Amino acid sequence: MNTFKQHSILPGFNLALGFTLLYLSLIVLIPLSAAFIRTAELTWPEFWSIVTTPRVVASYRLTFGASFAAACVNVVFGLLVAWVLVRYHFPGKKLVDALVDLPFALPTAVAGIALTALYAGNGWIGQFLEPLGIKVAFTPIGIFVALTFIGLPFVVRTVQPVLEDIESELEEAAATLGANRWQTFTRVIFPVIFPALMTGFALAFARAIGEYGSVIFIAGNMPMISEITPLLIVTKLEQYDYAGATALSVVMLVISFILLLIINLLQWWSRRRSTIT
To answer: Would you say 67 and 228 are in contact if contact means Cβ atoms under 8 Å apart?
Structure first.
């Protein structure tokens, strides 16, 4: 009996894989390895003294704390926005859908200037908040607002296609079996969209950690109060302290990689659990 080897519709796997690895190496691996190589010029006491100064530690706390808080808020409200866009029809829906992508297209510097103008003491919103004792611009709250603004589209655009693919028959079956709306959401819909929510959270969190342009305008950049780690890296570069800048970059890379790895493991666990059940 003659056997025929089944070829892929898109031939050239080895060549395509080679180009993929080459491209990733040039764009991702080599630049990242350069940061580690430059940091290796420092001795361990020098490296530790750079990355653990009180000013740097305060910037870590603010950068990761504000990024995490903004990503959590975007998960909640991003799900709400995606739900409204998928489940309801209303006048101006296409306009609202287009506005979601505005933070993608808007230059970060423009976003920072616009947010500062809104939330400053004499801004359209800030003039009503400051008499209540709520100061947004030039405080850590302003950083949180900016990171929430730039991270919302990541959650909406990740969850929206999953909601569109959920068949209405599943909800009808749950209602037929006696489930109320809350039980239908928590037991039928939420397990399906949870991996997408985690993906959106990871994307929003990763974007917020490295955000610079929109934050520096509204943050105030006061040491120990409203200074983010990317700003410290840029400051060291301007001072020609390349080893110090790469040291901070390596710390940011390692912490970000660990956090994203944990998020990816949670995604894998949720997908595996939903497949088994």
So the answer is: no
Q: What is the 8-class DSSP label of residue 120?
A: S
Convert the pLDDT of each residue in 159-192 to its tens digit: 999 998 887 777 778 778 777 888 888 888 888 8
Give the helix ranges, DSSP H, for the chain: 13-24, 30-39, 44-51, 54-87, 93-100, 102-105, 108-119, 126-129, 140-165, 168-176, 181-184, 190-210, 213-219, 229-238, 242-276
Residue 111, Cβ density class (10 Å: 0-12 exposed, 13-18 middle, ≥19 buried) = buried
**Where do the structural domains in the chain lie, given as residue ranges?**
38-276
Taking the C-alpha atoms of residue 42 and residue 40, their distance in angstroms, rounded to an integer, is 5
* Secondary structure of 235-257 as H, E, C letters: HHHHCCCHHHHHHHHHHHHHHHH
Six token digits for residue 4: 């025929």
Q: Band the pLDDT of 7: cuts 50, 70, 90.
A: low
| CA-angle at 122, arms to 116 and 126, nearest 5° | 65
| CATH code of the domain occupying 38-276 | 1.10.3720.10
How far is CA 216 from each of CA 108, 135, 208, 227, 254, rounded to the nearest angstrom? 10, 16, 13, 8, 23
Question: In a 3-state reduction of DSSP, which class is residue 53?
Answer: coil
CA 220 distance to own-chain centroid = 22
User: For 45-58, what is each residue's pLDDT tens digit?
Assistant: 999 999 999 999 99
253 vs 150: CA distance, rounded Å = 20
Output the six-digit token pair for 272: 């595996």
DSSP classification of residue 130: G
